[in-house]
């Protein structure tokens, strides 16, 4: 078994061509005993694991570390706890496991490994964040969990222009907008690659599979519904096509005019089930649900706005791409990945319960938010001298 796994990982490492490390890599404390990386399909979790394996190979003996995925057919019958014990007996110190959610009762095995083999470091991933989070009742005290998102606009530009670009805290952006924009505009043209990012740039596989990008994106969407949500018992087989129809109905709806009864009728789902299905699609990162700041976050509360998770999904699935929806989808995605975001009765969004943002074109006025403290206009232009007007693209530099 070990020989097969080492041969498999050798092939994977030989084909690992990318040196670029994601924003999350430097945030992970790899000295922790057990680390989980969760996130949507296609955002680069496997690559991150293999990059860590590559680093271990350069600094430690071969037998100290091992990578494998539960995608491999010959590990389907593996007893994970027993395997970890054998691995440690042979000097193993780092076990890197991909697609852990495909292993039945993985939480029980990981908990036992943590308790019995304290010197073994385990780093694992799961494509559907829901599965890991559901299991955290057993693992919460043992596992340090990190969430990997798709590429930020900053990361996309780094890969596209082959230059290093800084990231900024939100507070920093709001206080020093002019200086930051001036500095960045000296390094690249902010809108030169903007449309390319909106249509294709959120998923790292775009850079290796440009010709097949749409096909792969449709595949990730289908597998999230047909495999991840189904296997978790969150949906039933007969609901699969209805959930796909639900996504298309969301495409045809204005984010801020959500009519639950109409959506239920068009997607052939009961009104009572719509709320839970919307929540599942949100957890699977196919949707981005934004609640009103006054309503709280209850699963069965009516969402104030519902977006597709990112603009790549929007361009791939929706026949119409209203510019206002594109702007808000980008903002909700990039800011929501790093901050708490709710909708507002006055502006479009409230971030961290403190800052109000109104998103629009370069001619958007302050009328709607003029009397609100800590309020800003977000405009889809490259630059503005007004300190309260922030270019939309800049919010792609939060990570």
Task: Give the overall shape, derived from the CA principal axes.
Answer: globular
Give the uncertain stretches in residue-range form. none
What is the radius of gyration?
22 Å
Discrete helix count: 15
Percent of sequence in beta strands: 5-15%
Domain module count: 2
Q: Could you give the order of the helices and strands?
A: HEHEHEHEHEHHHHHHHHEEHHEEEEE
Provide the spatial order of strands within the biggest beta sheet: 2-3-4-1-5
The rounded distance between the terminal residues' Cα atoms is 39 Å
Give an account of the 3D structure:
With 399 residues, the protein is an alpha/beta fold. It has two domains: 146 residues, Rossmann fold; 244 residues, no CATH class. Helices cover 41% and strands 13% of the residues. The protein is built from 15 helices and twelve strands. It has a five-stranded parallel β-sheet. The chain has a five-stranded mixed β-sheet with strand order 8-9-10-11-12, with helices on one face. α9 packs across α14 and α11 packs across α12. The protein is globular and about 70 Å long. The mean pLDDT is 91.
